[in-house]
Amino acid sequence: MNVAIKKVPLYVIALILLVFTGYPFLYMISTSLKSRTQFFEKPYSLFSSFTLENFKSVFEMGLSRYFFNSILVSVIAVFAVMLIAALASYPLSRMKFKLNRVVFLLFIAGMMLPIHATLIPVFKLSQSMGLYDTVWALLGPYIAFSLPISIFILTQFMQEIPASLEEAAKIDGCNHFGIFWRVILPMLTPALMTVLIYNFIHLWNEFIFALVLISSPENMTLPLGLQDFKGEFSVNIPGLMAALTLASLPILVVYIFSQEKVVKGLAGGAVKE
């Protein structure tokens, strides 16, 4: 009983945090289901009406195109980051060579580099390569700026994997390539899911590079496209809320199906269990 009573303040704090974080999302969904008239009549009510016209309207105005561009760029960039970061983290964590620490610190230094300082060079480089105003122009900066934190997470996780597993694989005749793919990589699943969800959320919401490198509507990603919806729906608040609701769904789906592995990856629990 005493233990339960001691936990009451924690439950109260958790409930307050739930209200503060959950209410804006519920309000967004509720507003997206209202017509303009219903919104102005009851702007603060939750789920007082139900209409799907707002969702139909935003798709008619090009939301599906922005969705496709964001999914294409985000998925390719995230999986490229996961592969490159895993391959880079393996020698940094499992092999001893002179510049090991230096190379690792150089990657970590990339986390301190402000992306805004690179906008002009990236813009010029995209133009010279003929990639400007294409979705492919986003892949380079997306992958490059996602690698430092990804390598840091995977390197720290790999260092916790027992060396005895690697030694057993060597006895069975595995070389470094075989050890990485058959032993290390399967055990990296929690950390890889952490890298996936962290980078997917960041890239899905990325705006500044898309603003600088994309100009035509057919190549815009979702965050950039939503800026146009804001202008077109300057009065139609429910229409804008419908677009924002749809934009939030992929992140929620990815996190719901990955949250357990994300927690394990952050805690390094898969090795210590």
UniProtKB/TrEMBL annotation:
Residues 67-258 form the ABC transmembrane type-1 domain. GO terms for biological process: transmembrane transport. Its main location: membrane. It is a multi-pass membrane protein. It is found in: Cell membrane. InterPro entries: MetI-like, MetI-like_sf. GO terms for cellular component: plasma membrane. It comes from the Bacteria. The chain crosses the membrane at residues 12-30, 66-90, 102-123, 135-158, 179-201, 238-257. PROSITE patterns: ABC_TM1. Keywords: Cell membrane, Membrane, Transmembrane, Transmembrane helix, Transport. PANTHER family: ABC TRANSPORTER PERMEASE PROTEIN MG189-RELATED (PTHR43744:SF12), ABC TRANSPORTER PERMEASE PROTEIN MG189-RELATED-RELATED (PTHR43744). Belongs to the binding-protein-dependent transport system permease family. This is Raffinose/stachyose/melibiose transport system permease protein. It comes from Fictibacillus solisalsi.
